[in-house]
Design brief:
Layout (H helix, E strand, L loop, with lengths): L5 H12 L7 E2 H8 L4 H10 L9 E2 L10 H10 L4 E2 L2 E2 L1 H4 L7
Parallel strand pairs: 1-2
Antiparallel strand pairs: 3-4
Helix pairs in contact: 2-3
């Protein structure tokens, strides 16, 4: 994995914190906004430093959460009014596009 700076970690964290209730964004959207080379870097940041953030609002581009957290993540999203059909978030109806500040 590419070296990740503290500034990049904080930029991802700030964007995740700003995702509005009832909206989602993708790992790739966040990577693009921050200028990271891969959505996997965002995934690493989320795994290591997101307990205090609305982590459930970040989803893969397929709209499907990882199997081990699907029920928890989809439940939280549904509680916020995010459309979920057959275990998949309907991205075209609730996708939020981040912009770097």
């Amino acid at each position: 994995m590419a070296k990740v700076t503290d500034a990049e970690v904080e930029a991802v964290r700030a964007l995740v914190a700003s995702i509005p209730r009832g909206k989602v964004t993708t790992y790739g959207d966040l990577a693009g906004a921050v200028g990271l080379s891969s959505p996997r870097i965002v995934g690493w940041i989320m795994r290591t430093d997101s307990a205090d953030l609305p982590w459930h609002r970040v989803i893969s581009a397929s709209g499907r959460p990882p199997a081990h957290m699907a029920a928890r993540q989809l439940g939280r999203l549904a509680d916020e009014g995010v459309p979920v059909v057959d275990g998949r978030v309907v991205l075209r109806e609730c996708r939020w596009t981040p912009t770097a500040s």
